[in-house]
Amino acid sequence: MSSSNGGPSLPQERKIVTEIPGPRSRELQERRKAAVAPGVGSTLPVYTVAAGGGVIVDVDGNSLIDFGSGIAVTNVGNAHPEVVRRVSEQVAAFTHTCFMVTPYEAYVAVCERLNALTPGDHEKRTILVNSGAEAVENAVKIARYATRRPAVVVFDHGYHGRTLLTMTLTSKNMPYKEGFGPYAPEVYRMPMAYPFRSELDGPATAAEAIDRITTQIGVHNVAAVVVEPILGEGGFIEPSPGFLPAIDAFAKENGIVFVADEIQTGFGRTGRMFASEHEGVVPDLITTAKGVAGGLPLAAVTGRAELMDAVHGGGLGGTYGGNPLACEAALAVFDVLESEDLPGRARRIGEVMLPRLRAMAGRLPQIGDVRGRGAMTAVELVVPGTKTPDPGAAAAVARACHERGLLVLTAGTYGNVLRFLPPLVIPEHLLLEGLDLLEEAFQ
Ligand SMILES: *Cc1c(COP(=O)(O)O)cnc(C)c1O
């Protein structure tokens, strides 16, 4: 462990030795402008050389506190020794055969673990793919095949990816959809129970959605409803209590496949292994990615055997899906989640962060709402005394955090949410220092 360049053996401290970004990062940014298409953005263009525990170290020698986890990916921490060990052994043995050509045990083992880990004790099957968007695409393919129905229902503020189908499922136009149409057909968007911005409670909003599904689409035409149990890019919106169970019950009564998109919420992030568990929802299909493999590209669809088994042989797959390096990383992640009780760590992070954020909201009229569960928390910024979104304030506070060496991300349909996604292994002193820096950034 001590011979590695990153991982938890990195000094767990914030250290700022240049302005942010520093001179070497700025040089790389210039090179990038000549080589990389500008459609791909970066939140904070400091160029990384090492990361682990709760820090990211850049080319100028700055050590930043990480409240982003590469967008909820490095739940177990960057370069976790167990991930490094298993991936290193695998990379020396073989790097790829294609599971569709000659298979290997790790793929099967990952599917077994996901079947056991996801909510519900019914019989399940899993397929592995490369990205979250690809998992959502496959969930829709499976639901359509199994039901022989065309329509897909999604919700306001939802985010499901950037491919043609998944950007169609995504709610927000700019930047995800602008100019990229026409979109895929048979996608219908319903209202979401967004407690801060709607008067209706969860069951009432669900009743409204159910009425529209029934009258505007016809239940017999609906293959799937796809929903995030806590909406990620949409601004860490927790649907009001009762909304998800009501939609789930409606789906089950009408032969509609309930797909929980747990790509951002999964693997301990919210204090439970999966966020669906908070309200006892058992999804028919569940999509996972991000936190599953400690940063290696892997994603999955897991679900009821009778749905997953419906599709004909050869109908699902892909060249790299379930790459052996990514599978070994995932097996390490599953072990670490349990051995280090990372859902428990996530709950502890929430217990530290939420009271501090609420106290800040009491003093700072720009904070209109504080929300989240476990290590997935956020503040929504508004024009003081109103609910008018203030994306400018969110951008300014994020910038002030970055200058101080605290990496935070923004989110939200209105771009006015600061979201906090620390690695679940972040040491508590960095969590507290990060909160102090955040408060300073507001001043
Ligand atoms: C990130 C995300 C996706 C897309 O995952 P990619 O790996 O970026 O394709 C889909 N759904 C949710 C909820 C996400 O957070």
From TrEMBL:
Catalyzed chemical reaction(s): (S)-3-amino-2-methylpropanoate + 2-oxoglutarate = 2-methyl-3-oxopropanoate + L-glutamate; 4-aminobutanoate + 2-oxoglutarate = succinate semialdehyde + L-glutamate
Pathway(s) where this gene product acts: Amino-acid degradation; 4-aminobutanoate degradation
Q: What is its EC number?
A: 2.6.1.19, 2.6.1.22
Q: Record's InterPro entries?
A: 4NH2But_aminotransferase_bac, Aminotrans_3, Aminotrans_3_PPA_site, Class-III_PLP-dep_AT, PyrdxlP-dep_Trfase, PyrdxlP-dep_Trfase_major, PyrdxlP-dep_Trfase_small
Pfam families per the UniProt record, alphabetical:
Aminotran_3
The answer, when asked if Phosphoprotein is one of the entry's keywords, is: no
Name the domain of life this protein comes from: Bacteria
Specify where the region named Disordered lies, as residue ranges.
1-29
Arranged from A to Z, the UniProt key words for this protein are: Aminotransferase, Pyridoxal phosphate, Transferase
Q: Which family does it belong to?
A: Belongs to the class-III pyridoxal-phosphate-dependent aminotransferase family.
Name it: (S)-3-amino-2-methylpropionate transaminase
User: What gene name is listed for this protein?
Assistant: gabT
